[in-house]
Amino acid sequence: MARGELAWLRPHGVDSAALIVRLGPFTPPPPFWTVPLPERWRSVRSGHARAAQLLAAGLVSAAGRAFRRSLRAAAAAAGPPPLSPAVSELKAELHAGLAEVQLRLGHAAAAAANAGKALELRPAHLGARYARGVASAAMMDLELAREDLLAVLRARPGHAGASRELGRVRSKARQRDTQLATRLGKMFA
């Protein structure tokens, strides 16, 4: 449709009623960097909330897109370092959420990188530490995974996911050590 064009809309199942719509002019949104700073951060926060909703609903790919879009907007709105504590907190949440999405999609290296960025911004972020631990275990960096998962369990002793993952990490480490001992035994026998 072009500007000024008419469209007749007829609801499904109704023969007599019709709605006439005339397309008006389009006004493009202003560039993000020209929007006042409080409005930019409101946009970033609403994008984070939307991404969290999508993730909770199980729409993992859509949540990933929303987290990435919010991170780009946060980077544009934040300006150069040093960041204020509120900005650091929000960016850490966005990186941690993106790391969780990437874990669910099976992208362990990207998840570890985003969890690491979240931990740089907020070292006490348990969600990011757990995500980095799980991603490290998936990449067979068992020592880092063990350290991260133990840190999560020290902070929150009843964390079921960290306990389960730590058991898996210990099992993988035992298997790795057994295989190494077997190979060394064959080499020096």
UniProtKB/TrEMBL annotation:
<dbReference type="InterPro" id="IPR011990">
    <property type="entry name" value="TPR-like_helical_dom_sf"/>
</dbReference>
<protein>
    <submittedName>
        <fullName>FKBPL protein</fullName>
    </submittedName>
</protein>
<dbReference type="InterPro" id="IPR050754">
    <property type="entry name" value="FKBP4/5/8-like"/>
</dbReference>
